[in-house]
User: What shape does this take?
Amino acid sequence: MELLRSIVVVVHLIGFATLFGAWVVELANKNRGITKVMHWGLVIALVAGLALAAPWGVDGDMNYMKIGIKLIVVVVVGALLGIGAGRQKRTGQAPAAIFWLVGILTLLNAAIAVLW
Assistant: This one.
């Protein structure tokens, strides 16, 4: 069971890396756009995160406050990606505030996971 949980953790990290890596690439290219890769990274991280939030038969209490905060942050990132993609279709570029919030909140979610 622990091996399966570890695999899900790796998949969750791959989702985060995909989302944040796509954001960094857009930042480095000075494109400031919302890409399909960001959406896929979000979906992978969200699904794997929900799987990790399930009780895996571990001893001790789960930190539901941390899980709830991380879920709220990832839902906000998803909303920002959707809004940014919609605006990008109309104007050709995502608004700067939305683009920066996606990166900052994604990094915040990783920091919550590691530091809490």
Observations:
- Residues 64-91 form the longest helix (28 residues).
- The CA atoms of residues 34 and 89 lie 10 Å apart.
